[in-house]
Specification:
Layout lengths: L2 E5 L3 E5 L4 E2 L4 H13 L4 E5 L5 E2 L1 H14 L4 E5 L3 H9 L7 E3 L2 H11 L1
Parallel strand pairs: 2-4, 3-5, 4-6, 6-7
Antiparallel strand pairs: 1-2
């Protein structure tokens, strides 16, 4: 389901691989990202560029992934369209996650933070 690419030395960019992250696929998304974390991924950018809808199950999966990575690394989100961004604001997830306008900006900031 997810699409990944590793850039720099240890930054993994993940695309959810779906247009709608909902109850139908949120668990699979969470499990696949958790497997990457278990495999050693510590710097993760979730690129929502191709996601046009996110429900509470999708947000729950994202929070679960954030808890999984814990203090072992960083997880940021990027590329939120207006509808997904609004869901983040309504649920106050914009206060929980660092949000970048696109994956390139997120990568640049993570590399600089080094």
């Amino acid at each position: 389901m997810i699409h990944t690419k590793i850039v720099e030395t240890n930054i993994t960019v993940i695309g959810p691989g779906v247009e709608r992250l909902t109850a139908l696929n949120a668990k699979t998304f969470k499990d696949e990202v958790a497997a990457l974390i278990n495999g050693g991924a510590t710097q993760i950018v979730i690129d929502f560029q191709e996601v046009n809808f996110l429900d509470s199950s999708g947000l729950g999966a994202l929070v679960g992934v954030l808890k999984k990575i814990g203090h072992r690394g960083d997880l940021v989100v990027a590329g939120l369209n207006s509808d997904v961004q609004q869901m983040f604001r309504i649920c106050r997830m914009d206060r929980v996650f660092t949000v970048y306008s696109n994956a390139e900006e997120a990568l640049r900031m993570m590399v600089e933070a080094g």
